[in-house]
Amino acid sequence: MKHEFSVRTTRIFAVVMFATAMLLAVGSGGAGATAQVTTPCDGLVTTLRTDTVNATSLSDKNKGALLFKVDSAAVKLSEGKFCDALQKLNDYKINLDALHFTAKPKISDADYALLSGDVGNAIACVTNLVCAAGSTCGDTVTCPAP
Questions:
Q1: Residue 57: inside a domain
Q2: pTM above 0.90, yes or no
Q3: Count of the separate structural domains present in the chain
C-alpha cells in the first residue's frame, strides 16, 4: 500500500526542513563561516517565531511564508546584517497586514494583534541596532540626532 501525503503535509515538511537547514547553516562553524552575532533583539525574534508557529488561525501556507521571513531575519541578525534583518521584518509586517486587512481576513484579530505587536517590537529593536551602528540602511531608517 502506497503512502500518500497531502499537499498540506508536504508544505509543512518543506518549511520545517528549510528552517532546519537555515539554522544548521548559521550554526555550522566550518571554514568561511561568518561569526555569529548575539543581539538584544534575538529574544524578540524568537518570540515572534514561536507566536507565529502557534497562530492557529493561519493556514499552513501563510504560516510558512511568515516563518520564512522571520527565520531569514534571524539569520541576517546573527550575521550582523542589521539592515537586511530589518528589511525581512518589515516584509513580515507587510505580509501580516495583507492577511488581516482584506475583505475576508486570513488571520484572526487576536492572532493579528499578538503578531503585530511582536513584529513591531522586533522592528523597533533592530532599528535601534541600525542607528547604534551609525547606519540609515540607505536612507530608509530615520535615526534620532546624536
A1: yes
A2: no
A3: 1
